[in-house]
Recover the amino acids of this structure.
């Protein structure tokens, strides 16, 4: 009952604050509103641990909603700053009205159901209220040229729902305005195929869910894969997603073979969000930089990054299947295959094959021909990055394991020293390609 009282107070404050900012957008300049939002954000952070204002901030000890709330509004306003104010008003009203309406209706118990995607539980009644009110807001504030497009409305509504249900400790106060602002910014700047994008988003929801149920990915890992898949397929296009799919599908296949042959059927742990990110982060960044600059250099960097992680994965999964022993770089002795810093003949050949496969396929996809000197440079750079990853694993991973942070963070979704090593090893592909390419 006490928490319910705090929830009512906090939601009332959020509702009042949102409506106040919305009203000020009609009478004040953009720069003035920006400084007001910045001041409100600083106030929230500075008073978060103030005992006298505790009721303003927390409904329970785990909620960070009143920190996420001003950050969400600020990030949304900054992204939409140079666009017509109606786009910010749309994002703000969904957070202010729809999210509050969902919280109120979600308290109705009769015929209600509950579900969760990440941490926070969501009610079916609340979600229906959220969608209904969001549709009204979209139709009220956005131009009719957009709202008359059924597929645009479907994609926008699906985006709003996804950024609401992925909340963690009240983070929907950030993800809702941030996600909507991001989508509206992309829509404003680029022409998107909304029927195609809607189908991709739904397809990726089904695929990510199946990978979660099959224990290929953790819950957060599946969500991360969904975002990456929608980004590459829906925004970047077929040329960009095919190398990533080759890497991912081959990784899953070789991991299954490794489990059957080496570990005698014992399943590997599902990959978490950090593992997914470590394997694809630099490729995402390079593709985004190409999108912004249209510089072909970032195509080459994308190829070499994907080739590097493919080479590393093929080596680590295929090598122990055929070689029971490996040469350790740490003491220059032969040890059991699969150890950190171990090198085997078959693993080395697998790394070369993985690097070459991605380089050839990707180069042809992007340029429609085969330039063997460049393909050689890409393949060799990726292979050397794989070797650098092995060196980092040999001399760095053990030291990181002894750090207090990694000794205490043993949660399945926590970042590990191996993730850091993979990030560092794949980044070395950039340096090697600049030297060779």
């Amino acid at each position: 009952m006490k928490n319910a009282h705090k929830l009512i107070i906090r939601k009332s404050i959020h509702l009042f604050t949102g409506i106040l900012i919305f009203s000020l957008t009609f009478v004040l300049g953009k720069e003035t509103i920006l400084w007001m939002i910045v001041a409100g954000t600083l106030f929230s952070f500075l008073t978060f641990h103030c005992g006298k204002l505790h009721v303003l901030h927390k409904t329970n000890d785990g909620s960070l909603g009143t920190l996420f709330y001003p950050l969400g509004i600020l990030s949304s306003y900054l992204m939409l700053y140079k666009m017509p104010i109606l786009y910010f008003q749309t994002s703000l009203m969904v957070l202010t009205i729809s999210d509050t309406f969902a919280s109120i209706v979600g308290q109705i118990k009769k015929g209600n159901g509950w579900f969760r995607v990440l941490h926070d539980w969501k009610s079916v009644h609340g979600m229906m209220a959220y969608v209904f009110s969001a549709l009204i807001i979209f139709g009220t504030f956005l131009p009719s040229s957009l709202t008359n497009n059924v597929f645009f409305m479907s994609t926008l509504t699906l985006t709003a729902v996804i950024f609401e249900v992925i909340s963690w400790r009240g983070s929907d106060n950030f993800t809702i305005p941030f996600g909507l602002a991001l989508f509206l910014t992309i829509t404003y700047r680029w022409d998107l195929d909304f029927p195609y994008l809607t189908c991709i988003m739904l397809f990726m929801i089904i695929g990510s869910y199946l990978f979660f149920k099959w224990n290929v990915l953790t819950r957060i890992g599946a969500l991360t894969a969904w975002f990456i898949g929608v980004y590459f397929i829906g925004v970047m296009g077929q040329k960009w997603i095919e190398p990533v799919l080759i890497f991912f599908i081959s990784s899953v296949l070789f991991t299954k073979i490794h489990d059957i042959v080496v570990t005698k059927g014992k399943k590997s742990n599902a990959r978490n969000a950090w593992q997914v990110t470590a394997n694809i982060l630099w490729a995402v960044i390079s593709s985004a930089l190409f999108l912004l600059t249209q510089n072909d250099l970032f195509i080459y960097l994308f190829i070499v990054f994907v080739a590097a992680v493919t080479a590393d994965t093929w080596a680590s999964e295929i090598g122990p299947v055929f070689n029971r022993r490996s040469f350790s770089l740490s003491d220059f002795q032969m040890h059991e295959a699969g150890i950190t810093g171990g090198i085997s003949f078959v693993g080395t050949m697998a790394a070369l094959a993985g690097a070459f496969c991605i380089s050839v396929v990707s180069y042809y996809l992007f340029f429609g021909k085969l330039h063997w000197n460049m393909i050689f440079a890409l393949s060799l750079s990726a292979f050397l990055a794989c070797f650098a990853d092995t060196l980092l694993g040999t001399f760095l991973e053990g030291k990181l394991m002894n750090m207090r942070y990694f000794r205490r963070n043993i949660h399945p979704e926590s970042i590990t020293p191996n993730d850091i090593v993979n990030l560092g090893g794949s980044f070395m592909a950039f340096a090697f390609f600049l030297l060779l390419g």
